[in-house]
């Protein structure tokens, strides 16, 4: 019999029961909750007079609606009354059901996918869900983690299980070494450019190869975070020394005797040598250059030296229409060099790139430089209160501020603009977030997905540049 | 959940690939703490000239005349015809809530994003996957004939076209059973409560660090 993939192992370890047709009941170890996708789930529980199955398996924080500017008045700092109700509702629900919440004002509050790993809630070998598609992030720690809808949030609250069918296995293998200036964000954008936004539909992707072995755990999170942009609900990286080092000592991580036991168990969380994947995609690390997205889907991405594609040269009519729609929305002409796209807004943040290493990387490019005059707003938004504290302890806030950035409080911010941070219509934004859909950062706004280093370099130049030329 | 058995209805063709959930229901409407009332804001940015606000009255807003759902011939449509990777992007269940609230019970496309596909079934929407060529054909016929209707029969797993042609489709057995009977899957899962407890007890014994 062939060996097992990491995904197979995680799946097998959580099957409570399985029907003949493959539909399975899967046990869920951890659930993270936030204010946007949970209110209707709690309401459902109340209506059916149900209780959470295991209260301690859940942890909540608010992130999508919280302001990143002045927070002096606590929850009253939220100007939009509808946003405020949503944040208040999370507070009320978690209180009623006895679930721990890192609310506004708590230094541990932040983007749910930054908070989970940071607190040691995300552990190797667990199943973890959240009503948010970027839950794939946690797979960087070999946790079988994926996004679910609100009905499923309610299902997990009530039963500690999910009804699922097993996905197929895909291996994305990046061997070799990355060139200097090429980051985890460029790796995942290049992968999506290759497989397409639907390429991973129905698969759990494992990221393997020398490049991921060399990558830091935070870098792996950036990669797994965007597995969903390649269509896969799950992105995974095998356990190694780095994984264990990362988890060690975190507030919710196992301690003492339990730690020893856990580490022993975690060491087996790798795909067997003879495991068979349904699909394998291979990329050479040296071939990846800094990436910039030019359109309205994450697969519309090119390296910084590229030119905007011409829809008239696209043979597939559905694709040609997509390109035409995208160019119209983005206000770009076929053939334009990526480096000539003006940058008017810069956003460094989001669950893709708001951890301490991301902020360090952006600051290293910005140090001693100034944001270009034509950049109307550049903001740096740490992923959590603790990331913010760490960055300030290292003096990174000063580097950002001296360069002309605004240094903000943690939250999702301009990644999807549910709070007050919005990209105005028609403006081009160099953004370290994960989605460049129409209207994502604000109605009519034009998003270009890049790494923190590339965003910082674009802020200084006022247009995209190859960060390797300014390092 | 509402039952779904069969339906004969007008088809609306949304001729775009990779329609994402941000387009289906823009984020400002996710601030609601309710499950209903999203229909008027379905495809808000494509449907209206102005930018919609949550809790506002949508009746007087200027419509984009050329958007497919605004064309008189597709009024009352309950079947949405779409291109590949429909529903990609976020996990927001507000997307199927909005489609359902607007009146769509069936979505036909060559492929769907996984989370959206799953969320649809939980809300009484039947997503049907057909091959590219068949979908393309349906697009051509929908464009060509005003009032074009399809009959969808879930029990039989087929679609009947106006010319009598029958198209079979696949659907997962468990999901079909839930849709046909309007079953709440939490209730179904709780029938296995003892098994879940036993699993949990075993996990606690073998992986104590998780508890
Ligand atoms: S940062 Fe953006 S992608 Fe991440 S959870 Fe928040 S809104 Fe979603």
Can you tell me about this structure?
The complex is a heterodimer of chains A (471) and B (211). With 471 residues, chain A is of the alpha/beta class. Chain A is built from 15 helices and 19 strands. The mean pLDDT of chain A is 97. The radius of gyration of chain B is 19 Å and the shape is globular. Chain B has 8 helices and 7 strands; from the N terminus they run βααβαβαβαβββααα. The model of chain B has no long low-confidence stretch (mean pLDDT 95). Chain B has 211 residues and is of the alpha/beta class. Chain B has a 7-stranded mixed beta sheet with strand order 4-3-2-1-5-6-7. In chain B, 32% of the residues lie in helices and 15% in strands. Classes of the chains: A alpha/beta (471), B alpha/beta (211). At the A-B interface, α2, α3, α5, α10 and α11 of A face α4, α7 and α8 of B. Bound molecules: iron/sulfur cluster.
Which key terms come to mind for this protein?
heterodimer; A: 471 residues; alpha/beta; five-stranded parallel β-sheet; 31% helix; globular; B: 211 residues; seven-stranded mixed β-sheet; 8 helices; binds iron/sulfur cluster
Summary of the model, kept short:
In chain A, 31% of the residues lie in helices and 17% in strands. With 471 residues, chain A is α/β, with parallel strands linked by helices.
Write the layout of secondary structure elements.
The complex is a heterodimer of chains A (471) and B (211).
Chain A: H1 6-12, E1 15-18, E2 24-27, E3 30-33, H2 39-47, E4 58-61, H3 81-97, E5 100-102, H4 112-119, E6 127-130, E7 144-147, H5 150-159, E8 161-164, E9 168-175, H6 184-195, E10 203-208, H7 210-214, H8 217-225, E11 234-236, H9 241-247, H10 256-266, E12 279-284, E13 291-293, E14 301-303, H11 317-330, E15 345-348, H12 356-366, E16 377-380, H13 385-393, H14 396-403, E17 406-407, E18 428-431, E19 446-449, H15 452-461
Chain B: E1 6-14, H1 21-24, H2 44-47, E2 79-82, H3 94-102, E3 106-109, H4 114-121, E4 126-129, H5 132-144, E5 149-153, E6 158-160, E7 166-168, H6 173-181, H7 185-190, H8 193-206
Parallel strand pairs in B: 1-2, 2-3, 3-4
Antiparallel strand pairs in B: 1-5, 5-6, 6-7
The complex binds iron/sulfur cluster.
Iron/sulfur cluster (SF4) binds next to loops of chain A.
